[in-house]
Amino acid sequence: MPFQNFIPPRRLLLGPGPSMVHPRVLRALSTPLLGHLDPAFLALMDDIQTLLRVVFQTKNRFTIAVSGTGSAGMEASIANIVEPGDTVIVGVNGVFGTRLASMVERCGGKAIRVEAPWGQIVEPDAIDTALRRSGPVKAVAIVHAETSTGVWQPLEPIAHLCRTHDTLFIVDAVTSMGGAPLEIDRWGIDVCYSATQKCLSCPPGLSPFTLSDRAFAAIKARRNPCQSWYLDMALIADYWTEGARAYHHTAPISMLYGLREALRLVEEEGLPARFARHQLNSDALLAGLTGLGFPPLPPAGQRLPMLTCVTVPASIPETEIRANLLSTYGIEIGGGLGPLKGKVWRIGLMGESSTEAHVLTLLNALEELLIRGGWLSTPGVGLQAAARIYSRRNS
Amino acid sequence: MPFQNFIPPRRLLLGPGPSMVHPRVLRALSTPLLGHLDPAFLALMDDIQTLLRVVFQTKNRFTIAVSGTGSAGMEASIANIVEPGDTVIVGVNGVFGTRLASMVERCGGKAIRVEAPWGQIVEPDAIDTALRRSGPVKAVAIVHAETSTGVWQPLEPIAHLCRTHDTLFIVDAVTSMGGAPLEIDRWGIDVCYSATQKCLSCPPGLSPFTLSDRAFAAIKARRNPCQSWYLDMALIADYWTEGARAYHHTAPISMLYGLREALRLVEEEGLPARFARHQLNSDALLAGLTGLGFPPLPPAGQRLPMLTCVTVPASIPETEIRANLLSTYGIEIGGGLGPLKGKVWRIGLMGESSTEAHVLTLLNALEELLIRGGWLSTPGVGLQAAARIYSRRNS
Q: Are A228 and B40 inside 8 Å of each other by CB?
């Protein structure tokens, strides 16, 4: 069985991640390797830390890239902070809050789930109530951008509650980082992790990760070692942040090359411009989708600018249309997870994927499929609605 | 502070990993991305599984690449097999056996350490004694190629003991896979993990991983969930091996592109030719190093063909020479770890790094530095000794 050279089909990635990757990042991935203790590589790690601090808006010394995907960052957060018997309040309104709670329990912690319907935020008042009713709480954990529902969770009120109750604040910023404001220091977030394949537009495989001094002190003061050796931040600190540059595990060198280049692109664009771009394209996309008969799942004011989740009417065969988008147009969008399976589409406009051309291409392809199937009669309604949003830009 | 384009210095990687990466693999890394649930990507995963089975010499259905470095594969092995209270016998004769034992304890298991001096194998008789003296033992874990000492551990006798005592056999093949025989099925290994940046000559970031049916059944029969969600093979099976292709975490797509290409290169060369190449270049290197006054640490018959560990005489400033090799010649070799720090060099000839040209280049550079420092007077003694090995090749 001879294996041929792998030539992927052309794809426009508009799902919940991975997003499109800039050619400069693809090129950086193919840079010849350095050893993970080479002085030139250690300097590259310094650059990554500096750039990550810019995007996280933090001065945290402990700001690194975890050697795994976003879920590894989630596990690193929980496994380092939670000791057996610790109580953690977890906001649960989608797949990723559910996953957080499961990880707390796998670490021997007690997870108090503060639930909200999928498609809505977790109300800060509900977190407040849970904090008042519980005994000592080690941490509150919540998802900033719930990738399974498109909900944009407000963080500042919860950060304030955490300060009042003297508990650590853990935030999942997998989908938000680099696409929406995220201010670790000003808001008072203690532990935050993200992923590279969303708004940073780097391939998946690393998890940007930051710890406040308070969180790092809590990790250093653990009674028991972290149950994960691979993700033990007390050990990893000696390689990344404490100056010793001592070997822990071999760094994923090529991925770090790619991340550095992706972060440079973010810095060149500038965070305010990048956030505005995400918001504009998301507004245009949602106008177009609404025009085509797909209403947004989250209520107004709770909708993410990089992931648009819309309800698919029962009359429309969502799986078939999604499959046709991929096979005929090479466009990937995401379906629903868990209770939303078959009921929603999740369309990501993240990082390099967030452009006007992509919005228009997707709306046109969708219209063609809907007209061909007899579910839509007037061509161009989606495109027109999007165009109205873009036309406001210069006025 | 403007960050420039990153241009690494030229390096010849002859340390304990990462090894040199073939241009075809570097090019594969820069392939545009597919979604992790795209049919074309799932087909690529199938290819990787097929190719990994060839290199592991196994029919194991559960043969995958873990989304982390070799240490993540080690943690996956231990965290999935060991439940709180389980006893595991661990061979400890270097850094990686020590790490295995630590992971067993972090999982709530009891590690019975069967120790041997660093630089020597763990005698199968000592494992036998430990098995006889212990109560029920869940697994025996041992390192095939101890990267910290260059020792080549025999596995077949220990596999036989595991069958006799009905216990699982866990093998660390991080440094051996693709460079020396490793026969999962014929020898009877139940859990085996490796890494991509050694003899497979792919960048670091993935861990090839295989489970026998017996090991997978033990995981499915656990009383408690695996303490790691990220590495829980009962969940990951639904994405990689059980046909459902259900989302667990986002696969590290670009790294898997690279791994497929690296495995194709292994298959094109053929395992027997690859193993012979590693042995030949290692023989030549060791002859040269011995000629220069650096004797091997492990005794004859216990020396790895992809990692040569030699003792550095106290009269020679090992750190300084190693630093000069890097700064003057761009050659990376490894120093000692733990108790061997400052006392040994670890020279890797792994995958693409294992060539005649690299052996000669390193020996010549070393000779120049030794002559310049006054520790050697006759030029060419190391090269001559290596040449004698190569000259036998065609006779």
A: no
Segment B101-151, tens digit of pLDDT: 999 999 999 999 999 999 999 999 999 999 999 999 999 999 999 999 999
Q: What's the gap in Å between the CA of A114 and the closest CA on chain B?
A: 21
Say whether pTM exceeds 0.95. yes
User: Where are the alpha helices (H) located in B192-317, listed in sequence order?
Assistant: 213-220, 233-240, 253-269, 271-291
Segments of chain A scoring below 70 in pLDDT: 1, 394-395
Whether omega before B18 lies within 30 degrees of 0, making that bond cis, reads yes
Per-domain boundaries in chain A: 23-268, 270-392
Contact criterion met (CB below 8 Å) for A157 and A132: no
Q: Please choose, from the candidates B185, B168, B163, B214, the residue with its C-alpha nearest in 3D space to the C-alpha of residue B55.
A: B185
Per-position b or e across A190-219, b if 16+ CB within 10 A of its CB: bbbbbbbbbbbbbbbbbbbbbbbeebbebb
Best residue in A22, A24, A33 for a mutation probing chain B (most B CBs within 10 Å): A33
Evaluated on CA atoms A354, A355, A356, A361, the torsion sign reads negative
Q: How far is B392 from chain A (nearest CA, A)?
A: 33
Regarding an ipTM greater than 0.85, the answer is yes
Residue of A53, A230, A329 to mutate, interface with B, max B Cβ within 10 Å: A230
Identify which of A6, A202, A96 has the alpha carbon closest to the alpha carbon of residue B247: A96
3-state helix, strand, coil in chain B (%, to 5): 45, 15, 40
Give the closest residue to B177 by CA, choosing from B96, B271, B260.
B271
Residue B13 clears pLDDT 70, i.e. is over it: yes
Kindly determine whether residue A13 and residue B21, on different chains, have CB atoms separated by under 8 Å.
Answer: no
**Residue B177 DSSP one-character state:** B
How many angstroms separate the CA atoms of B353 and B305, rounded?
A: 12
The dihedral region occupied by B289, where left means phi > 0, alpha psi between -120 and 50, and beta the remainder, is alpha
Q: Is the peptide bond before A18 cis (omega within 30 degrees of 0)?
A: yes
Q: Which CATH fold topology does A23-268 show?
A: Aspartate Aminotransferase; domain 2 (3.40.640)
Residue contact B3–A47, C-beta within 8 A: yes
In total, the C-beta contacts within 8 angstroms joining chain A to chain B are: 220
Q: Residue A21, Cα to own-chain centre: how many angstroms?
A: 15
Measured between CA atoms, the residue of chain A closest to residue B108 is: A227
> In what helix (H) or strand (E) does residue A71 lie, and over which residues does it extend?
helix A70-81
- Chain B residues closer than 8 Å to A34 by CB: 8-9, 11
Cα–Cα dist B277/B202, whole Å: 18
User: What residues in A contact B225, CB-CB < 8 Å?
Assistant: 106
Q: Is A252 helix (H, G, I), strand (E, B) or coil?
A: coil
Best probe of the A interface among B95, B230, B325, by most A CBs < 10 A, is B230
Contact A6 B71 (CB under 8 A): no
Inspect the interface and report whether the beta carbons of B106 and A20 lie closer than 8 Å: no
CATH superfamily of A270-392: Aspartate Aminotransferase, domain 1 (3.90.1150.10)
Backbone angles phi, psi at A211, to 5 degrees: -130, 130
- In chain A, residues with a C-beta closer than 8 Å to the C-beta of B267 are 3
Contacts of B1 in chain A (CB under 8 A): 50
Please state, in angstroms and rounded to a whole number, the distance separating the CA atoms of residues A179 and A349.
9
The string over B317-339, giving b where at least 16 C-beta atoms fall within 10 Å of a residue's C-beta and e elsewhere, is ebeebbebbbeebebbbbbbbee
In chain B, the percentage of residues whose pLDDT exceeds 70 is 99
Contact A249 B203 (CB under 8 A): no
| Residue in A6, A20, A247 nearest the CB of B28 | A6
Query: Is the Cβ–Cβ distance between A162 and A134 less than 8 Å?
Result: no
Q: How confident is the model at residue B393 (pLDDT cuts 50, 70, 90)?
A: confident
pLDDT at B394 over 80: no
Q: Do A18 and B33 touch (CB under 8 A)?
A: yes
